[in-house]
Amino acid sequence: MKLSHIISFLIIAWFELSAQTVYQPVTSDIYNLLERLYIKGAIEYHSEIKPIPRKEIAGYLISALSNRDKLTGIDLKEIEFYKKDFADEISFISDSIYLNLPRTEFFTSGQNERFRLFNYRDSIFTFNLDPILGIQYGNEWNSGFSQRWNGLEFFGYISDNWGYSLDFRDNLEQGDNIDDKKINVPAAGINISKNTNNSIQYSVANAQINYGWNTGNLSFGKYAVNIGNGRAGQIISSSKAPTYPLLRLDFRPVEWFNFIYFHGFLKSGIPDSSTYRATSVDGRESISDIPKFIASHMLSFYIADELTLSIGESIVYSENVEPIYLIPVMFFRLADHYLSSEGSNTGDNAQLFADASYRISPINSKVYGSVFIDELSIEKALEGENLSSIGYTVGNEFSDLLIPNSAFVIEYSRIQPFVYTNSNDAQTYKSHNYQLGHWIGSNSDMFYLSYRQNILRGLSIKLSGWYFTSISCNPLRSTENR
């Protein structure tokens, strides 16, 4: 093992001794930097699962600095910038800013040189509070478009084991041709609270409370979980659907193995007639949706510094919480057979998936691929049948290809007609009517190209484009999108 890898492992082992966990949202730009540092061989980062703990990210930032010869000047400035944002987590590793505690700061950059609205720190409790404000203007569907958002976020740690966070934001979009459905676009799905002729309003909220120990973490929260490599979208589990409540377990007993399990509470959007009841107000009858759930687990094997292989399965079911799916190590497909009556069509919707990536260090490149199998019959597959329930993604990403501080991605995804579907509408691979996997949906394929050039720290130019076709499986309505 290389000396730099030994140093990286010692750093990660060090910060695991203090096991508080707060997951960094999957939308954070830090993941682009980690991917770049990994491809260039500066860190040993595994991208098959997001989000990951902030403390783990802090360890990667420190580890990268031990490989300065592989980094450009802009890379080093990016790392120094993020070290300020992850100062609390770095202090858990280095024990560098425990002096002068407790510490209370308002409207200041303070000792961390990172501005926050409010920061509190003592030996057992931390609290960081920031406002969220943003606005953007552009052109959408040949019409002017604007969006503004505002909200609040806070996170922190309690004692040696607990972590927590909350972020919420209100959004207002205005324009003559607003996309209020967010279908066939990479943007996350939304739950609209108010819709007028030229504006929509909606809110987004995510929260988590976590308990960690030396080799794992237990989380209860509402946030996106991405499974599988993919720069234009993930076919296994993505951020397309609005976030949903979930219980998550991470367990990494040894360096070469990681296990993740989660059980989520989805939104079916299908009224349950048995819950209909009248109210004292005419026209305000009450009815609930059919309950819908997902359970998923994955085993990741870090076979070598350059090679990662992951395999897993998931199951979508409805009506009632099944205790058998709360067993993290249960084989869900066999559990479905146990629950189903012989000869009946009442089974749940099971999926199998795999993901792999390989780093080609001499050319600063990474090849990756994911496979998603929805209700596959091995027997029929060997006979050349039942191949219409398979989706896959293959891609290649380069860092500093010919030009320093650049990134180039080429990716192809194909999703066969019956992926994400099910004969039982309450058990499709969806939540809030958005697929849990890739945003292009069933019976689609897509080519994706992206080029990014970092000019200064915090300033980059990105050119990207995709070409995809999508044909509806509904024989009464077929559409093609490009």
Unreliable stretches covering 5 or more consecutive residues: 1-17, 474-482
Distance between the termini: 47 Å
Average predicted confidence as pLDDT: 87
Counting helices, strands and paired strands, the structural category is mainly beta
How would you spell out the order of helices and strands? HHEHHHEEEEEEEEEEEEEHEEHEEEEEE
Q: State the CATH topology of the domain at 224-470.
A: Porin
Q: Main sheet? A: 18 strands, antiparallel
Q: What do you see in this structure?
A:
By secondary structure, the protein is mainly β. It has a domain at 224-470: Capsule assembly protein Wzi (Porin). The protein has helices at residues 3-16, 30-39, 54-64, 73-85, 87-94, 332-339, 378-382; strands at residues 49-50, 103-108, 116-121, 126-140, 143-158, 162-175, 192-195, 199-213, 216-222, 226-227, 245-254, 257-271, 289-301, 307-318, 349-360, 365-374, 390-399, 406-415, 430-431, 434-435, 444-456, 459-470. The chain has an 18-stranded antiparallel beta sheet that branches. Helix 3 (54-64) packs antiparallel against helix 4 (73-85). The radius of gyration is 23 Å and the shape is globular. It starts with a helix and ends in a 12-residue tail after the last strand. The relative contact order is 0.10.
